[in-house]
Design goal:
- This protein is of the alpha+beta class.
- Helices cover about 40% and strands about 15% of the residues.
- The chain has 18 helices and 15 strands.
- It has a five-stranded antiparallel sheet, with no helix packed on it. A five-stranded mixed sheet has the order 8-15-14-10-12, with no helix packed on it. A three-stranded antiparallel sheet has the order 1-5-4.
- This is ADP-ribosylglycohydrolase family protein.
- Its cofactor is Mg(2+).
- Keywords: Hydrolase, Magnesium, Metal-binding.
- InterPro entries: ADP-ribosylglycohydrolase (IPR050792), Ribosyl_crysJ1 (IPR005502), Ribosyl_crysJ1_sf (IPR036705).
Length: about 525
């Protein structure tokens, strides 16, 4: 099975065109709770409508264009800090943590009430397009992206959708695509539970309204509580298609920021009950209320991948501007914001051979894409150092930071999952250095930056022998426990530096770990 360049480009265009249409359709109803019957745009859409769902992916596009495929959470965090102007909710918390020197994935965990919300899964299309046919790679990038400002369900939702979208470039059967996405996330997480609930209600013959209510009763969302029940706005007054809503006493109050499970479930409701019809599907997503621009935008993108640009009816395409208007970015010549959806797609397509070179065969008319043979997880789909196993990343529950250098990768696990320290309380880390070369190495790890009076178990310098990678991933790294006890705390912030040097190599690499005094 192969995908020609011309067909791939049509699917990328369908993806971002569908994203733009769905996001625009749902924009007036975002943050409100209600059950509607809309079947068209309810506002003037002759001018482009800015949407953070698309904005944020322009930052990742710039990162790929300038840094290549070797992206990780630290690089994405730097681009986030430089170019994302939004400081609300999880966007601001992750950015603030990063600016303090806290490293991902702790940036998405610490002090983050919105870690389980929607800001990450809404920006997965860029990874799906750049890893078309390779859901494992898309899931890996989605993790690195999401953990900058999310954790737990906020990350699981991004990984699920990125995998589904990447697989949709080759697999068109909905009953196969959904299990592919589920194969990449923990089966006991709430996102998986919400997906399975919607599938069960669809199989049982419920209508979409009954499925929506069951979903929100089982996985309450706080998004519709932000604006409350829909009463109409100056932009879109209440009308028969979107009447004034009354509170539903059966829906329980949600935990603040716990929105991803229900929202992913609503995407599934639109997809299932829409029965493949583009307009009906995205309208159903909006008709469920809550985070309407995100659910309809993501579903529109998925349907655009499945059918390509031609599958989006002309009345929807012609009614929505293809110009790009930004609302959450600080642009400059490096970011170089594309002016139109078409320009965005051209730039994404050019980066596919960079990110997915193993699946790309250049031809006279562009390239062909050949997918991984198994779109669900299998051990054979991992290439050394090109990507990591997303299952391992997710199993660490936001406690392990990764630092990638040319000769080795350094993993630092925070035992308690935070960067906080307290007087007289032992702080324990676990450090693993993984060899990235087909050569054995001795690596010296020296600890600097901590006050001399702080006891450090095992001393402040270690030498690790790393074997070369030779087919067994279990034999190419060495680990040690690092414990220290703060005493006489006088500062609010301390920085521990791990200085690494390989025997016989001139370069030194540094890992800076920030610790904050207090709870």
């Amino acid at each position: 099975m192969k995908l020609l360049f011309s067909d791939y480009r049509k699917k990328v265009k369908g993806c971002f065109l569908g994203k733009n249409i769905g996001g625009t359709l749902g924009a007036p109803f975002e943050c409100f709770r209600g059950v509607y019957e809309i079947d068209r745009f309810m506002q003037d859409v002759s001018q482009p409508v800015p949407n953070d769902d698309l904005d944020l992916q322009l930052v990742w596009l710039s990162a790929v264009e300038h840094e290549g495929k070797n992206l990780d959470s630290h690089i994405l965090g730097e681009y986030w800090e430089n170019y994302v102007s939004a400081v609300i909710s999880e966007y601001g918390t992750g950015k603030n943590n990063f600016q303090m020197g806290i490293c991902p994935p702790l940036t998405g965990v610490m002090r983050n009430e919105n870690r389980n919300s929607n800001g990450a899964w809404i920006r997965t299309e860029i990874w799906a397009c750049l890893a078309a046919g390779n859901p494992a790679l898309a899931a890996n990038y989605a993790y690195y992206d999401a953990c900058v400002d999310h954790a737990e369900e906020g990350v699981f939702s991004a990984v699920f959708l990125a995998a589904v979208e990447a697989a949709a470039f080759f697999e068109h059967d909905r009953e196969k695509l959904i299990p592919i996405g589920l194969s990449y996330i923990p089966q006991d997480c709430a996102v998986a539970g919400a997906v399975k609930l919607v599938l069960e209600r669809y199989a049982a013959g419920d209508d979409w309204k009954a499925a929506r209510k069951k979903l929100l009763m089982t996985y309450p969302s706080s998004f519709g509580e932000i604006g409350g029940e829909w009463k109409g706005t100056a932009l879109v007054p209440a009308c028969p298609a979107c009447p004034v809503q009354e509170r539903d006493p059966d829906l329980p109050k949600a935990q603040h920021g716990y929105d991803a499970p229900a929202s992913v479930g609503i995407v599934l409701i639109g997809w299932l009950w829409g029965e493949g019809d583009f307009g009906r599907s995205i309208c159903l997503a909006v008709n469920c209320g809550e985070d309407t621009d995100c659910t309809a935008g993501t579903l529109g993108a998925l349907l655009g991948i499945l059918g390509g640009e031609e599958a989006i009816p002309s009345d929807w395409r012609q009614a929505c501007s293809e110009k790009i208007a930004i609302c959450t970015l600080r642009p400059d010549l490096l970011l170089d914001v594309p002016a139109t959806i078409d320009e965005l797609c051209e730039r994404v397509v050019r980066q596919f051979p960079v990110v997915s070179s193993r699946a790309c065969r250049m031809t006279e008319h562009g390239f062909e894409i050949e997918p991984n043979k198994n779109l669900c997880y299998s051990e054979s789909e991992f290439y050394p150092y090109q990507q990591e196993d997303c299952r391992e990343l997710l199993s660490e529950q936001g406690r392990t930071a990764r630092f990638h250098f040319r000769p080795y990768t350094v993993k630092v696990t925070f035992e308690d999952g935070t960067a906080n320290i307290a007087e007289g309380r032992e702080k324990r880390l676990f450090v693993t250095v993984c060899n990235r070369l087909y050569l054995p190495q001795f690596v010296t790890v020296r600890l600097t930056g901590l006050p001399e009076e702080w006891p450090v178990a095992g001393g402040r310098e270690r030498c690790l022998g790393l074997e070369h990678w030779h087919g067994s991933q279990k034999e190419w790294g060495q680990s040690f426990s690092l414990s220290f006890t703060p005493t006489g705390l006088q500062q609010g912030k301390y920085v521990l530096t791990l200085q690494l040097s390989a025997n016989g190599r001139g370069e030194k690499n540094h890992v800076d770990l920030t610790f904050l005094s207090g709870e």
